[in-house]
Amino acid sequence: MNRIVPLLATAGAVAGASVLVYALRPLAPDVSLGVIYVLPVMGVAIAYGVPYAIGAAVASMLVFNFLFLPPLYSFTLEDSENWVALAVYLGTGIVVSELAARAKRRAVTAEQRQREARLLAEISTYLLEGRRLEDELDWIAERTAEILDVHEAEIVLGKAREPKAHRAPYPLVAGATQVGTLYTDERSEPQLDVQQRFLPALASLLAVAAERERLAREALEAEALRRSDAVKTAILRAVSHDLRSPLTAIATAAGTLRNKQLALDEGDRGDLLETIELETRRLSRLVANLLDMSRLEAGAAPPEPELWPVDDLIRQAIDDVDGQDRVQFAPNDAPPVRVDAAQIERVLANLLENALKFSTPQAPVQVRVTTTRAEVIVRVVDQGPGIPSAELERIFDAFYRHGSDGSGAGLGLAIARGFAEANGARLWAESRPGQGATFALALPAVSTPVGIAA
Amino acid sequence: MTGQRVLVVDDEPQILRGLTTMLRGAGYDVTTAATAADALASAAAHPPEAVILDLVLPDGRGTDVARELRGWTEAPIILLSAVEDEREKVAALDAGADDYVTKPFGVDELLARLRAALRRGAGRADPVISIGDLTIDVANRDVHLGGRRVRLTPHEFDLLRVLAQNEGKLLTHRALLREVWGPAYQVEAHYLHVYVSHLRKKIEPDPQSPRYLVTEPGAGYRLVDPRSI
Known about the structure:
The structure holds two protein chains of two kinds. Chain A is α+β, with helices and mostly antiparallel strands. Chain A has helices at residues 4-24, 38-48, 50-68, 80-128, 133-148, 192-258, 266-297, 310-320, 341-356, 412-422; strands spanning 153-157, 167-174, 177-185, 306-309, 327-329, 336-339, 365-371, 375-381, 426-431, 437-444. In chain A, the strands form three sheets. A five-stranded mixed sheet of chain A has the order 5-7-8-10-9. In chain A, strand 7 (365-371) and strand 8 form a beta hairpin. In chain B, strand 4 and strand 5 form a beta hairpin. The interface between A and B is medium-sized, with 30 and 27 residues.
């Protein structure tokens, strides 16, 4: 530490006191004014510690003797009483300086401990809020550096690491385990008592936080595992149902055709063959759906957008589904959209297939198109039982089935939403139970390019 | 053929169509329904002589339909079930269904089950029942296997009698326990397994591969004539 400043300050304080003594001389006997020098001694003791204070006391005594005690301007004394006074002043100065310095030390220590406690409280508040320990380490290290009075500090979690260049490692140990290591720059040495007091407390706190995080992570992993098991079971159930229904229809039709004892006419045979064809198509659609689903989940189905009239996409989708005679659609020159035609046709076909399950010739499915400034919205409206509001979102989950009746696609709506979102479109369900369900597909509108404008 | 009326209940249109064609080809008169409500309405309007019932329907459970029907008709009910519907299948059998086939089923299998169910009618009340080489004298509680007398304990005899009076019909664990041991024992399935194994040792030519007393895994037992299979 630089010594010039305390020395100058000490000299200044003694000089100041001397000026004060000089000024007060008309008011009191010279000898008694020596007590004024206690003031600079005390000030120096508080500011710079006992050694400087003793220096100040000795200097004060000499200056007082030299300037104010007869014979003036010499270090000798003519009156032996003045010797006693001078000795008392010196002793008083030294004792006072020690007391003042001790009080100062206490105040400093108290403040230091308060800072440490405040930092620990702050850390625990942050970590209890569930923040990630890793994310908080930087500011914790920065504040720890302030507490330890070192220039730089870094905290690394985990068991002892390799030493770092120009860094002094301090292990953070809680109980028997090392939580991590505090690295400080090797030039600044933290105070020993602060180290011994603060670092174990910090280590315990970090240990609790790390343990908390580990438990939370494990709970999360267990939950994810449980859910993936539940999903697998759901997939197996759904796929086995969706496979079995067409297989049963095909097996029944084929078995009936083969059985020589059954009396079948040409119409019957035609019906059974048609059943086999239809159900074979249904099976291959299921397989395609499963493949699409896995491609969507793997992000392996990038759309290839082109400009298409919405009406054409809808017409094509209607052609793709069985039961198109139960679909009502009046084209009305809706504006074009820029989408992957194959994918959006799949979206619409899946919506139609879903709606057709709830339709009859008396209650057909309706397709309506509306246009807003930003979007072209296609609505597929059925007159089925509708969807409870609690399920409006869940029906888009893969393998979610409405109710527990075990029928339904399970995949169709999930794929529809996957393709819709891949094309920048929105897909949602609207329904009031008992009033049929509406599926709305909002495709982003294209500002009509010059040259195609109608 | 006789033109007996069969009600077919399934929500899959193509399965319904295949079954209808098959059953008409076999000489039955067929009515169809796609929902539980339709099934009950149709059965009330045109009482069927037999019902083929899908276990899972869009508006309810096949079990409930079976229970409703049993309230007023003895017409045999054959369930169409899936492998994973095991519990529901047993519940439906307990509720009064007579038999089941598992999807996808063979056409011959379903037709055979249907014929057997229709033949059984309301059960047999004969004083002496013959099944294969087994002769069961119900009145005198006497059993002979190929002319040789078989000694049975009272419970073993009652078990055999109930099975024989419902020859060919699948009886659930619960139904057998109720008939033989009484309503208080309906859940004690292990009693039943022990008695069945004792009974097999006495009446089966080879108790390890039973031919008379057949296990329907997870559902129950049935007594069949080995020569009729």
